[in-house]
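Fold this complex.
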Amino acid sequence: MRNFLILIRRFWNLILFLILEVVSLALISKNRNMQGVDIVSSSNSVVGYMYKKQNDVVYYFQLKQMNDSLLTENARLRNAIAQVSNIDQFRDSTVRIPITVRDTSKKDSINTQGVLKTIRYAQYNYIPARVINNSISNDKINFITINRGASDGVQKDMAVVSGNGVVGRVANVSAHYARVVSVLSDRKISSKLPDGTSNLITIWNPGSPEYVVTEKVPVYIKVKKGDSVYTTGYSFFPENVLIGTVAKVDTMKASSAKNLKVRLSTNFRSLQYVYVVDDKMGAEKKQVEAETAKPAH
Amino acid sequence: MSIYLRNIFRFVLLVLIQVLLLNKIPLRWWANPSGFPPYTPFIYPLFILVLPLSTPVWFLLISSFTMGVTIDAFMDTGGIHAAACVLMAFFRTNVLVALLPKRLSEYPNTSPNIKSMGWTPFLTYSAVLLLLHHLVFYIIEIWSFSSMGYLLIKVLATLVTSMAFVVLYSLLFSTSLNATYYDNK
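Structure:
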């Protein structure tokens, strides 16, 4: 026993060093697998508060850029509304008349124009959030911290999009802050091409925050430079969110497949506002999928 | 200012500079010319470099771990900074013993800097430890040796900026005030 104590005292520094290294390695592995709530992360309240204060100051320098991005998004949304509601097409020379359906089965309808029927409820609810911290220089995982948390309805595994395209997926949530794994990470995005080619996989290559790679597109599919790449509804992202446009097509001779270098439509260097997508059907979808995944007895 | 206050103050200041200024640099750096990867310059290892010479090893290890974990929380890197910092602190004594003529206990209340060590030994000491720190940091972060060139580019680029910070610090704070802590005499 005495010898043991002497041994510990002699190698005390080495033992302390090893203990601390093991603790840090445990923290690293915990951070990498995206599960569980981390104390050592930017979604904890102290760090989130600091970043929010910093962002409040820097915010004013970026107002011009932010105005531009909001204006373009407004324009895009106006177009989308116009397409859905078939009104508000003043800019076009053709005048469109709202489509109303006469529903004769409803006895109590006084309105001779017919009763407006809701065909489908909105599946997605968008929670706007401000980016208070953002990283692009890490090589495996890049995180974004946003100023909305559990008290605003943000939950783990929700998709995050910007006005221009995909951003990422919520990893940790505290009361007022959430940490998002951005698409600049080694996480695959299920994606498709505008001609309907689905089941493609898009992944980020470290080194550049501007490009991702859509892998293993069969050679018989015609892809031109400038084509868009969208998300599918298979994973956590909503369907038809823009990932980016094809910047370069690399044909690989060996495997008869093409790799598409895709320029991200979201500019991660100047990300200001994002939307957390609350999928109302998400839980149901997950439950059904989990049930079918179980072995049948 | 006492030696403790001075180091606590330095800790807070370096964390703030690292987190609020330097972490934002790759975002504003608009293009990456010829595929040069964006990277974050590091200034916070300076805290471990300039802790007093007579600091016991266990305190070095604990304070470096605290520093690393603080930076990790802000940069969302899990424990990579902590691991690199602890390793750097562990080898600090060995590098100092190799470079200094006298035993470390014979330098009471003195920090390693250009005043106490001279330019060449101090820069060698900083370069060796910073190289160790950056190498470990990027090896754990990238976690593959398939692209050695990429790893080396990142390590060297970060080392150049870190050394620039060390030189800048030496030039700015090389007054006699910083070399010895008078109130402890």
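The radius of gyration of chain A is 25 Å.
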